[in-house]
């Protein structure tokens, strides 16, 4: 359900947010504890549900404002299911292309504490091209464009370059971590990472304080947000570094929580919020998300 503050497509004429990213069918196994290497344990439940970082972030953004998703699905039942799921949530899917082959999949283990371990099989997502993405962005003309690193690296570079060349804010969520050219990182406003990703892009394992990591990342990115789970969020802009706490809740499932945060952040920024306010509101939404049964 959309929140009361949600704008409609007729209010704006074009999406405020374009998310470039993956659509995967999540295969979720719940178990009391995750197995050790070579060990077999019994699962407690199994469910298949639409997911993927791009899809998750688009759903979160669309709950706040007009949002479009740019991606690729296969010509299988999973692709049809995932597209319909986005359509039902009000996401503009005109630029989700269908290609021959299987849609992406993600195999997810969730333990009794709500912690997860994930394996992603890209499938159709790997067939999304930079040219397709540029054409879609030209047609959509969003205020904010958001992408991650599950898509081909040429797509990531194309999104950053397109945003830099026009009047569009570029949000980068570099997950899963991979080497990136400085020109991509330097376009990010903000660069949104968790603690593990922050350590990777800082390139210094001795740098463990989140505030210090944010300052280091500001040397390459225009602004930085570091999510610390239950320990809070760090927001860094210019010479300012702020850390704020989040509400402590029992986590039912942390899968997709980071995506929910980033998608919400993109929508709030597109609607005119400053980064600190957008981060606080997005953290509250992500907290509610992890506490909700799915």
From TrEMBL:
Locate the residues binding K(+). 253, 255, 274, 277
Q: Which UniProt keywords apply?
A: ATP-binding, Carbohydrate metabolism, Cytoplasm, Kinase, Magnesium, Metal-binding, Nucleotide-binding, Potassium, Transferase
Q: Which GO terms describe its molecular function?
A: ribokinase activity
Q: How is the cofactor bound?
A: Requires a divalent cation, most likely magnesium in vivo, as an electrophilic catalyst to aid phosphoryl group transfer. It is the chelate of the metal and the nucleotide that is the actual substrate.
Q: What is its EC number?
A: 2.7.1.15
Query: Which reactions appear under catalytic activity for this entry?
Result: D-ribose + ATP = D-ribose 5-phosphate + ADP + H(+)
The pathway this protein participates in, as annotated, is: Carbohydrate metabolism; D-ribose degradation; D-ribose 5-phosphate from beta-D-ribopyranose: step 2/2
Q: Which residues form the Carbohydrate kinase PfkB domain?
A: 16-286
Tell me which residues bind substrate.
24-26, 52-56, 150, 259
**Activity regulation field:** Activated by a monovalent cation that binds near, but not in, the active site. The most likely occupant of the site in vivo is potassium. Ion binding induces a conformational change that may alter substrate affinity.
Q: Where does ATP bind?
A: 194, 227-232, 258-259
Q: Which Pfam families match?
A: PfkB
Q: Which SUPFAM superfamilies match?
A: Ribokinase-like
Cell compartment(s), UniProt: Cytoplasm
Residues forming the catalytic site: 259
**Which cofactors?**
Mg(2+)
Q: Domain of life of the organism in this record? A: Bacteria
Q: What subunit structure does UniProt give?
A: Homodimer.
What is the similarity comment for this entry? Belongs to the carbohydrate kinase PfkB family. Ribokinase subfamily.
Entry function = Catalyzes the phosphorylation of ribose at O-5 in a reaction requiring ATP and magnesium. The resulting D-ribose-5-phosphate can then be used either for sythesis of nucleotides, histidine, and tryptophan, or as a component of the pentose phosphate pathway.
What name appears for this protein in its UniProt entry? Ribokinase
Native source species: Williamsia marianensis
């Amino acid at each position: 359900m959309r929140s009361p503050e949600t704008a409609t497509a007729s209010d704006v004429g074009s999406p405020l947010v374009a998310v470039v990213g993956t659509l995967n069918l999540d295969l979720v196994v719940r178990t009391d504890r995750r197995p050790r290497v070579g060990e077999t344990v019994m699962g407690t439940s199994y469910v298949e549900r639409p997911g993927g970082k791009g899809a998750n972030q688009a759903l979160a953004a669309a709950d706040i404002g007009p949002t479009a998703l740019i991606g690729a699905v296969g010509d299988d039942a999973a692709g049809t299911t995932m597209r319909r799921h986005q359509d039902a949530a009000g996401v503009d899917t005109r630029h989700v292309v269908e290609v021959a082959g299987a849609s992406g999949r993600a195999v997810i283990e969730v333990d009794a504490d709500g912690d997860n371990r994930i394996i992603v099989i890209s499938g159709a997502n790997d067939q999304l091209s930079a040219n397709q993405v540029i054409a879609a962005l030209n047609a959509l003309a969003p205020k904010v464009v958001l992408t991650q690193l599950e898509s081909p690296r040429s797509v990531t570079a194309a999104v950053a370059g397109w945003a830099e060349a026009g009047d569009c804010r570029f949000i980068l969520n570099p997950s899963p971590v991979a080497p990136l050219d400085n020109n991509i990182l330097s376009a990010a406003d903000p660069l949104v990472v968790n603690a593990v990703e922050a350590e990777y892009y800082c390139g210094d394992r001795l740098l463990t304080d989140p505030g210090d990591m944010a300052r280091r990342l500001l040397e390459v990115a225009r602004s930085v947000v570091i999510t610390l789970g239950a320990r809070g969020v760090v927001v860094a802009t210019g010479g300012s570094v702020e850390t704020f706490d989040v509400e402590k809740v029992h986590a039912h499932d942390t899968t997709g929580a980071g995506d929910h945060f980033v998608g919400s952040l993109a929508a709030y920024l597109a609607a005119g919020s400053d980064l600190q306010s957008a981060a606080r509101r997005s953290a509250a939404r992500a907290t509610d998300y992890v506490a909700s049964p799915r």
